Amino acid sequence: MAKANLISASEFCVYHNIEFSFISNLKEFGLVEIVQVQQTDYIPEDQLEKLERMIRLHRELEINPEGLDTIDHLLERMSRLQEEVIMLKNRLRLYEDNEYID
């Protein structure tokens, strides 16, 4: 992974005024990925949106890491279901269009 796509975990923590232990707890639950390069922890760029969402939920709603794990699971499931609905709508549209042709 290119270092250009990594954000220093310590800088991220300072910027967001959080303890590294919070990110470490999220990593233990499998909610975020942390990459270690030369004994320095980094956060992949593609994890930032998810991590920032977790921080907001934790701060604004006081949700603990266990709750964040549950919310993340439900959000992922909802996203998959939305994708499935779109796919099914497209298939249905295809059949409806074919009816008018016949």
What does this structure look like?
The chain is mainly alpha-helical. It has four helices and three strands. The protein is elongated. The model has no long low-confidence stretch (mean pLDDT 92).
Poorly predicted sequence stretches spanning 5 or more consecutive residues: none
Structural class: mainly alpha
Largest sheet: 3 strands, antiparallel
Distance between the termini: 53 Å
Descriptors:
102 residues; single chain; 67% helix; 4 helices; three-stranded antiparallel sheet
Give the helices and strands, then pairings.
Layout: E1 6-8, H1 9-16, H2 20-28, E2 35-37, E3 40-44, H3 48-61, H4 65-101
Structure summary:
The chain has 102 residues and is mostly helical. The chain has helices at 9-16, 20-28, 48-61, 65-101; strands at residues 6-8, 35-37, 40-44.
